[in-house]
Amino acid sequence: MAASMKSLVLHAGVVALILALQFVLPEYHHGILARTLVLAIFAMSYNLTFGYTGLLSLGHALFFAAGMYGMGLGVVHLGLPSLAAVVFGVVCAGFVAAVIGFLALRTAGVALMIVTLMFAQAGWYLILYFGKWTRGDEGFVIAREHRQILGIDLADSNARYVVAALVFGAVLIAMLKLVESRFGKVLVAIRENDERARMLGYDVSAYKLGAMVLSGAMAGLAGAAYGIMFGYVGATFASVQYSILPLLWVLLGGAGTVLGPLVGTLFMTYLIDKLSEYTHAYMLFAGLILVLLTLFARQGIMGEVRRRIVSWLP
Amino acid sequence: MEIGPNLVLAVLEGALAAAVLTLTAVGLSLVFGVMRVVNVAHGQFFMLGAVLAWTVAHYVGVNPTVGFVAALLVAPLLVGSLAVAADVLVLKRIEYDPENTIVATIGMLYIIQQAALMRFGPDARPVEAPFNHRIAIPWFEYTDKGFSLYWPWGLGTTSYKLAVIGFAILILIALWLFLSRTRAGLIMRATQQDREIAQAFGMPVGRVNALVFGLGAGLAALGAVLIVPIRQAHYLMGDEPLLLSFIVVIIGGLGSLAGTVVAAILIGMSDSIISIFFSPTLAKVVSTLLVAFVLIFRPQGLFGKRA
Question: Which one, out of A8, A127, A244, B155, has a CA that is 20 to 30 A from the CA of A44?
Fold first, then answer.
């Protein structure tokens, strides 16, 4: 079997497994796993820029929040129907990513991190400043009647699980196809050596911007989906912690692997869920894991799996 | 109060903020200049200084002056030692790779912050100032009878606040003398200018890194000890100084100490003055965007020369 066929079977199998899990898992896990799957989309969006293109951003919370607020404000203030509001959120996030990418991609490395962080902080402050509409830190609730898409009630935990799994599955397969496409290969070439990619005649800036916009729109999809599935929109999701979390998930799961973001998000969400029963200071372990990863395992979990066991893993 | 006395008050408070910010930002700038790494945990060293100051003052007890002086000596030293350990155990091993260092210091940020939350709890805790006399400031008014002085209600400062400003200036002068007149300072400056040539001449570059990282953290902690009698110690108090120090270091020009001092005074003062007229949140939007645009279009900083 060709490598691309094998990986398609593997990833489709993962999606099927997630869909099947709903019949096995107790009720409690439906909520937490649905949340994890949506956050894993966010992690995949981060992986596209960080893992595949080598762009280290510390501002992805802004794209997530742009999707979430685009959706939420669209429903509450513009009176958009649910599905249109989600699309509107994705478009908002893509637009924000295009503007920030256009400006920030003039810098690279550490400067890029600080610039993206500063833009994201400015966005967070703006959300707080326009508290009249955004309700600031307190956030606002999306009423149940606005959480119906194509006749599916997203407030119902079983329906929500299936929708989360299907959206996640679609993004996962799209990501796999993207990575195997010519576009994805050029992104990896830019990550490995952007001077060489330029010499080979690729328009490096355009590819980087393309990756940024695509990643921003994906993060926006995750934000909009999160808002409408769990019925809450709040400024916490725009804070710097939500820029650092996808970095942590991707590093842990394996940057530049298609399944890595899911593995990292799954691991961290369940770890934090368990730890928060014992202590309020559960982010201590997030910090420890970050330091240990930089010291001992730059490849992350799936990166190590690829290096040691399954060399064809995309 | 009218606009005049309000402005005087803002300038006084701004000078206090600028004094503490200068110490903190110079620490960050020194680390960046010599080691070429960005320390995201810098704000947590500040917080740790404040928290340790409370702990020391609390356990020394008896006399607030003795407690405060003990805190002033012990807290920066402890924080500096912790930073040296962090450098040797983590940063040195990842070979100061710029991007990895940021990820590792983000990790340290959470470790220090959450450890403080576990040991210290979520409450804000006060430290008593060693002395605290109120100083009222007169203002003039022009009436039919000519100029006359009066004491507007609320216009004033305290002897402690003035002492903080004075002490910060003394520390900066001492730091400048250390960097420009001592052998250790010379080695640091040589490392900053050209790490490889310095190493080729047998400079102990490895030890310079650990020392600079410790010194930078110690300066942040010192600033925090000074401010803690005015603003209580709290485990989340490191976030704002981190952001402000970043703004200062970037606007002043990365690695330029003189630029950092100028920018710290500018940012500290303007933050306090702008906050009277506009919303502090809007002031933050403007300053974060300013940093982003400076890095994009003028990466050498507003005051720096192009390298």
Answer: A127
